[in-house]
Design brief:
There is one protein chain. The chain is 29% helix and 21% strand. By secondary structure, the chain is α+β, with helices and mostly antiparallel strands. The strands form three sheets. A five-stranded antiparallel β-sheet has the order 4-5-8-6-7. A four-stranded antiparallel β-sheet has the order 9-10-11-12, sandwiched between helices. A three-stranded parallel β-sheet has the order 1-3-2, covered by helices on one side. Among the domains are: 5-50, Uridine Diphospho-n-acetylenolpyruvylglucosamine Reductase, domain 2 (2-Layer Sandwich), CATH 3.30.43.10; 224-324, CO dehydrogenase flavoprotein, C-terminal domain (Enolase-like, domain 1), CATH 3.30.390.50. The protein binds iron/sulfur cluster (SF4). Iron/sulfur cluster is lined by residues 116, 118, 120-121, 128-130, 137-139, 156-158, 199.
Length: 327
């Protein structure tokens, strides 16, 4: 690990000033991914600004949404009574997203900002446009079974690893960020950037901008929701394909539908077209199949990950079928 300067932030403004002033500075929160990446010299910040003492931990229920401090741990959010009662898709995504030990350490801000699990990104001896822009993408002609089929470019095909982000995206959640220019609110639908020709830019945060809170709208009472994660093994594994769904079904009609995919996209992937097909329809197999088809529309396979397209469709149909049977 390269040497760096350690700074403990005394306030949000202090943290922002310390990172914004140094192009190679970074924030440190739970550190569950970042410290590994520093040990492997994938990340080499010269200044690390510790934000763990900032008052950004806790969950506030406003009645129609939850305002979650970015330092709230995954476990704290999963255990919150409103999440357990009104947002099962978020709870399930959190519980399936990491081991209990990691959930107690990892923060929600860090979860949304986590880096890809692409093996080439984590190996400084090989080319990777995300780690070192302009060097090439080793995955396109390499081992790409786990890689994305949606939102890819010829510069990067890495998947986004967060499960929670998929559930939060389906709910229409937003993040609050504080920078030198003040605070702003960014919907998650506009937060993540497709890789395009600049895969090292993963979200719309400016350097130094600090993600301070998440705003999670609650589902209407009576809504059904869930998160299905398909993976190679049952514990501590990343998704091959996942789907977060929320439905309001009444009188044999789907009145509201939210649907987002994980494990198949370069970013968490919401599918408005599938939601449109579901709204106003009766919950039957034919409609679910049409929504699944729409969900994977435009998917492009690499040499070893074509199976993800059908797997993603089947995950959508299964989640919709399961929720529609709930009473
Ligand atoms: Fe790097 Fe993206 Fe290619 Fe992986 S897929 S090697 S992260 S550029």
């Amino acid at each position: 690990m390269r040497s760096f300067t350690y700074v403990r932030a005394e306030s949000v403004d202090h943290a922002v000033a310390e990172v914004a002033a140094e192009p190679a500075a970074a924030y440190l929160a739970g550190g569950t991914t970042q410290v590994d990446l520093m040990r492997d010299e994938v990340l080499q910040p010269v200044r690390l600004v510790d934000i763990t003492r900032l008052p950004l931990r806790g969950i506030r229920d406003t009645g129609d949404s939850l305002v979650v401090g970015a330092l709230t741990t995954m476990e704290e959010l999963a255990a919150h009574e409103v999440v357990a009662g009104r947002l099962p898709l978020v709870r399930e995504a959190l519980l399936l997203g990491a081991s209990p030990q990691l959930r107690h350490m990892a923060t929600m801000g860090g979860n949304l900002l986590q880096r890809t699990r692409c093996r080439y990104f984590r190996d400084p001896s090989v080319a990777c446009n995300k780690r070192e822009p302009g060097t090439g993408c080793s995955a396109i002609d390499g081992v790409n079974r786990m890689h994305a089929v949606l939102g890819t470019s010829r510069h990067c095909i890495a998947t986004h690893a967060s499960d929670a982000a998929v559930a939060l995206l389906a709910l229409g959640a937003s993040v609050r960020a504080r920078g030198r220019a003040g605070q702003r609110v960014v919907p998650l639908t506009e937060f993540y950037r497709l890789p395009g020709s600049a895969p090292h830019l993963e979200n719309v945060l400016e350097h130094g901008e600090l993600l301070t809170h998440l705003e999670i709208p609650l589902l209407p009472r009576g809504a059904r929701s869930g998160y299905l994660k398909v993976r190679d093994r049952a514990s501590y594994e990343f998704a091959l394909a996942s789907v977060a769904v929320a439905l309001v079904i009444d009188g044999g009609t789907i009145h509201e539908a939210r649907l987002a995919l994980g494990g198949v996209g370069t970013v968490p992937w919401r599918v408005p077209r599938a939601e449109e097909l579901l709204r106003g329809a009766s919950p039957d197999r034919e409609v679910f199949a049409a929504a699944a088809e729409a969900a994977l529309e435009g998917a492009v396979a690499q040499s070893a990950n074509g199976f993800k397209i059908e797997l993603g469709r089947r995950a959508v149909v299964r989640m919709l079928s399961t929720l529609s049977k709930e009473s």
